[in-house]
Design goal:
Rossmann fold; elongated; 27 helices; alpha/beta
Amino acid sequence: MPDLILGFLVQVSILLFAARLCAEIAERLGQPGVLGEILAGVLLGPSGLAGLVPAFRPWIMPETQGPALIEALAMPGAMFLLLIIGLELDPALIRRHARRALGASLGGLLLTFALGLLLGQSLPDRMLAGPDQRLVFSLFLATSMSITAIAVLARVLFDLGLTRRSIGQSMMAAAMIDDTVSWLLLGLVVGLADANAPGPATSLFYSALRLGGFLVFAFVVARPVLKIAVRFLQERMVAPHRQTAFVVLIAFVFGAIAHGLHLEAILGAFVAGIVFGRIPYLSSGVRHGLQSMSFGVLTPIFFATIGLKADVRAVLTFEYLPVLAAVIATACAGKICGVFIGARLLGRVPTMEALAMGFGLNSRGAVEIVIASIGLSIGVLTGQMFTIIVIMAIFTSVISPALLRRAMRHVPQTAAEEMRAERERGTSAHRDIHRVLMPLRSRKEMGPHLEVELAILERLRRNSPLVLTLFTAVDESERKAAGAYLRNVSRRLESLEPYSKVVAGSAPETAILSELRNDYDLLVLGAPERGTGTEMLFTPMVDYLVRMAGCPTLVVSGASASPGPQRLKRILVPSNGTIHARRAADLACSIADEDAEILFLHVLGRERNLSLSGTEDLEARGNDIVQDLQGIATARGMVGRGILRSGAPEMTIPAVANEEAVDLILLGTNLRTGSARLLLGPRVAGVLSGASCPVIVYSS
């Protein structure tokens, strides 16, 4: 028997290595990685290496009093996974597909429960823990078959890229309904099995009351407090990773509360994710940090431990094989057929999509094993029946990803999904922009350039939650006047609920860069006066801030001739085919008025000694560039028009802007490092000096 700590470290090392290796093999074979992670546990456990080589068993499955240490590591894996899925969940999209989710859930629950109840009544007496427990056993078996493992489903949807598609959101909503109803039914069954527990009706009532109370606490009481806390962490504290630590802390607190209420701990983490997902102050880095730790380390261990629990050899006898086959067949047929019928009849879901939902919701996973463990502990299940249910849970978790992947080949994206996918692909540079810093100089009146900045921010908010901080750095004697000016600007942006911050006694550029350390996603600057000479692009301060910001910047230049509220009906986006120009094109779609026209311009350079075929190649490439950008506009529901011109870009772009009478020129650029001054390229400088309309320089 190895030392406890040594055994734990060896076990984690073996499990993580095997899980990642098998996940890699599964991915290379075109299967979801979760399938390989579960099979890794099966191959290492009593059905594989631990059973065939007894000397290996203490190292991979050490015998301990109480839960093994590996379970303490596996639980955070499940909680992290559900926390991430909660963060990604789109409640508005779920509401739009509520009918589909409800139909699929009800169909799957009712048919599976009915078939499970009939199977429990027909199984031989040797499968019962006691001769007088037939009804309780049947109800328990039916309940365990009805559930869907949210953790497994969530990972499968993530692996297959379905978390943002309508079918994925519908399946997650249906799984939530499944779990809720199943845990309520479990409370009833436990009440029936426990002579000291209250009656079934009372148990069911208390289960529903606990769940309802927890949800009210999370969304009504905790959410406003957490919103304030997240903003406080962002604005007032400086320690790195503070938001990530806070999110994980609250997920564990919610999990502890849920567990204390006899609900599922992972349900608490899932609810925490939903709550945080609706808080716009949350930094985009939180999601990336959680995903790296979860999908890289914790969830592979969690899914591998599921496989460890299966001892296939224990039921591979003529006595138990028919029961195992009947349980698996009943569980799969009930869930797949039930979801299919419910989705088709109640949700009016297309045939192949309904079948895909059935395959996806058929996975049971660790939740099933938890329920089986409860049944074993309260004396409802025998050891053999426990193993059969565990094998059924693993079997459904293994086949569901493969079946779902195959079915999804016949479920094409809808037009709305294609538009959403294109929008999210295109906006990858700025769809995660939530925290915006806009430094201002205190003035008596808001200038025209500020109107352009405010118009852009108001339009950006249409696509994602936006948290705006208005910032100014002044002398101590000007603090009061500066505060009044920021309040005046705040009233103009009342819909954004901006946060105002006045810093006194510091140099403006130093104060702004210090504030940027608080994890801002975008810096918005105004440069109404254009730079003069070759050493300056905007103004000395703006040039310095763009160069040193360390985050995407958006500079509004030359807006002094744009009086009144800014109209963005015609936007010109020059493109040379780079990713930066593509991001600018998508940004233009985000800030344009609904009935706007976006002009995509590609300038063909004047190449000397170019043959006719070479000119045709340049024109073909230019057409490809503008057509690609027109596709972005179409996907966003905007009108886009491509323009090809020849000449020097710094002269052609302003000329086309004047010819087309555009309201704005939007330039996508890449910051060139390694210089003591701001370098965005000679074309940017030429456009800034030659344009007669406002110019936005977006450095992503």
